[in-house]
Write a structure and sequence with these properties.
706 residues, mainly beta, 4-stranded antiparallel beta sheet, 1 helix
Length: 706
């Protein structure tokens, strides 16, 4: 039975959610969901492909990277050059920037930029398992923003190749429009000539092994550059080359194909040579070239399997390149850490927990889940639980999460899952950790550090009377349910919720199993289903209410506490729609209620069964009682969060704009506004912007002022 239920948890499903929650005490409107918000990166790539490109039109080269992990999972990353063209410094890593949405299960990771539609900004194409994916830049050259991905546009019939392709945008025939040169996993080359024009492309993929380019018979990654400064384009290609019996991996080389034709009629026949015999590169080398030190010649970045990137300075000149010395991590290029031969990501049964783990006043994310290990050397796969820590490097109002780290959770990996719960169980002013693993085993880690710098030690198994039935997937929920000053505990066990009262005395921590102490009556739809729960004071009446979630069918139920803070009594269940969206191959798990944007209401986050994602629903409708919403208007405000200026779309139709604080007091009013409003006089906080149009209709939108 347990195995059957686990298979159901990780099986593909279609998630369809409802619309709005009507609550007699406070309106709750959970809009969303948003997958992996606030910079959350759910994959650690095994393979990275860099592109050096001036993506913000400031005269220096930025670093754009595609990353591939665990077969079909992929992401894009951006590091802005905040140094100069001669001395680059790449800033912190941003995941899926500029509105980029990765096509699910596409394995899309190989980027190439060019002005495909001749509108003066850089568009993006990427190679994938499905063919070529195109992202139009709907922003500007200085502020890119990428639109909805399009698969194999402009008559690009590359899906018929039935293999992963790696495209390069380039004007190969000197006719002032962009063509595409492809390499693929078999080492073959293909040429897609643009037979349209520079603003309306139309590609013909009639040519294979074009211009004398010979197959390497191994996976090949290409870039086109004029490496010898003779005014025509040469080809640089990274590929596997030999097998290292000692380390059990392939070596790699980077080849140089000199163009002995001309700028309009390239010819590469018989002129390939080894540009770089990279003894440090394993399995394959993925090149990117650019003048990183502004000395007039092209330097080289080479990334390898397991995502390490090496920098090779061109010690020759602009006509005769020479790459000898190498260095790792120059300019702030992000490096990923791996154990040799292992692909490691939290990618199943993700469980989010949001707490202020470093006592800096904002909520950090601790992310537990099942970690799949694919060891390509031993051939032995495994699945175990692990925790990762995402520090909130933004603010309480505008969270932004840094790259994940395992620290401070240098703890023993668990069996299949690792579901974290935090509470100050020993009352010493810092957060302790409980981890629930598959089949219900609980491990306790005391925080022997402090609130600012936690250190988790003194491991105890199934402590303090917290012993559960043999159930595969559960999580502890801590709350003071009887208002006696200590934290009690809930736990889900298949189709029931179990309550453990905290009975600690004289410093001795203990819990007593009270079973279904509150006589919670589950709806019939949940009687034979796996359930998950959380408690929060959703109606702000001073006691804890209960939420129970079923992943199949997807449904959230609300049980209002109609008793007191000391003696909880839960009303009958009310089904709660939570927005409208669909995600293939994902079940939601483990609801977590928390005020993630510091606006005074409870937002909602879920883990999921596969794809390593979390999903976020913002509570967008807990308004002060004296704010009334009528029908929505075709008017919007931006940016949000805002600094000193707030812009208004369709401002000609607006009669007045009122800005109210979170208790409903008006702090600013502008009658018949122009296209922007000054916010200089307002402190950083959360506000509500009430807009009234000239017909008397009103709408309210939440605003974060930074």
């Amino acid at each position: 039975m347990a195995t059957y239920r686990l298979k159901r948890l990780v099986a593909p499903a279609l998630l369809v959610l409802g619309t709005a929650l009507q609550n007699p005490v406070a309106a709750q409107d959970f809009t969303g969901p948003t997958q992996n918000p606030f910079g959350i990166i759910s994959i650690t790539p095994l393979v990275t492909a860099h592109e050096l490109v001036d993506l913000d039109a400031d005269g220096d080269l930025d670093l754009f990277t595609g990353g591939l992990a665990d077969g079909e999972l992929s992401a894009f990353y951006f590091q802005e050059n905040i140094g100069s063209s001669a001395e680059p410094t790449f800033d912190r890593l941003y995941a899926n920037p500029f509105g980029l949405n990765v096509v699910p299960e596409s394995g899309s990771f190989y980027p190439s930029f060019g002005d495909v539609d001749a509108d003066g900004d850089l568009d993006l194409i990427t190679g994938s398992y499905l063919g070529i994916i195109y992202y139009e830049n709907i922003g500007t050259a200085q502020r890119p923003e990428f639109g909805t991905p399009e698969l194999n546009p402009f008559n690009l019939n590359v899906a018929g190749l039935d293999r992963t392709v790696f495209p390069e945008l380039v004007d190969f025939d000197n006719d002032e429009d962009l063509d595409i040169l492809l390499s693929d996993v078999a080492g073959d080359y293909f040429y897609c000539q643009n037979i349209g024009n520079n603003s309306t492309p139309n590609f013909d993929i009639s040519q294979s092994t074009p211009f004398g380019l010979r197959s390497n018979d191994n996976i090949t990654f290409l870039r086109t550059v004029d490496i010898d400064d003779d005014a025509d384009l040469d080809v640089i290609a990274g590929s596997q080359s030999y097998y290292n019996n000692i380390e059990g991996v392939f070596g790699a080389e980077i080849y140089y194909y000199k163009n002995i034709g001309d700028v309009s009629a390239p010819n590469f026949e018989g002129v390939d040579s080894v540009l770089l015999d990279a003894d440090v590169l394993r399995n394959f080398a993925i090149p990117a070239m650019g003048d990183l030190d502004a000395d007039g010649d092209l330097d080289l970045l080479a990334s390898q399997f397991q995502a390490t990137t090496f920098y090779y300075e061109n010690e020759g000149n602009n006509t005769t390149p020479l790459f000898n010395s190498k260095s790792e991590g120059d300019f702030g290029i992000h490096q990923y850490e791996f154990q040799l031969g292992v692909s490691s990501n939290i990618n199943y049964l993700t469980v989010p927990e949001l707490v202020d783990l470093d006592a800096d006043g904002d909520l950090d994310l601790i992310y537990g889940g099942a970690n799949y290990i694919d060891n390509y050397i031993t051939g032995i796969d495994s699945l175990y639980g692990r925790l990762k820590f995402y520090e909130n490097v933004g603010t309480a109002i505008s969270p932004e999460f840094a790259l994940p780290t395992k620290a401070p959770f240098e703890i023993v990996d668990t069996y299949i899952t690792a579901n974290p719960s935090f509470t100050d169980i020993d009352g010493d002013g810092d957060l302790d950790l409980f981890v629930t693993e598959y089949y219900g085993k609980v491990t306790f880690y005391e925080n022997t550090g402090n609130a600012q710098t936690p250190v988790f030690a003194n491991q105890l198994e199934n402590p303090f009377g917290l012993v559960f039935e043999d159930y595969e997937i559960s999580k502890l929920i801590f709350a003071d349910m009887d208002n006696d000053g200590d934290e009690d505990c809930f736990n889900n066990q298949y189709n029931k919720t179990v309550y453990f009262e905290n009975t600690s005395t004289n410093g001795e921590i203990s819990f007593q199993n009270k079973g279904n102490n509150f006589n919670i009556a589950l709806p019939e739809i949940l009687v034979e289903e796996t359930i998950f729960q959380d408690v929060t004071d959703i109606d702000n009446d001073g006691d804890y209410d209960l939420f129970i979630f079923s992943y199949d069918p997807t449904q959230l139920f609300y049980f209002e506490n109609i008793g007191t803070a000391q003696n909880a009594t839960f009303a009958e269940a009310i089904a709660i729609p939570i927005g409208t969206s669909s995600f293939s191959d994902d079940y939601l798990l483990f609801p977590v209620f928390v005020d993630l944007d510091a606006d005074g209401d409870q937002d909602l986050m879920f883990g999921s069964t596969i794809n390593g994602a979390v999903f976020y629903y913002e509570n967008n409708d807990s308004l002060p009682v004296n704010i009334i919403q009528n029908k929505p208007l075709n008017i919007s405000i931006y940016p949000n969060p805002a600094n000193d200026v707030l812009y208004i779309s369709n401002f000609e139709t607006v009669e007045k704009v009122e800005i109210l604080n979170t208790v409903g007091q008006m702090v600013q009013q502008v009658n018949q506004p122009q296209n922007n409003i000054s916010l200089n006089g307002l402190p950083a906080a959360t506000y509500f912007v009430k807009i009234t149009d000239k017909k008397g209709a009103q709408a309210v939108q939440k605003l974060h002022k930074q």
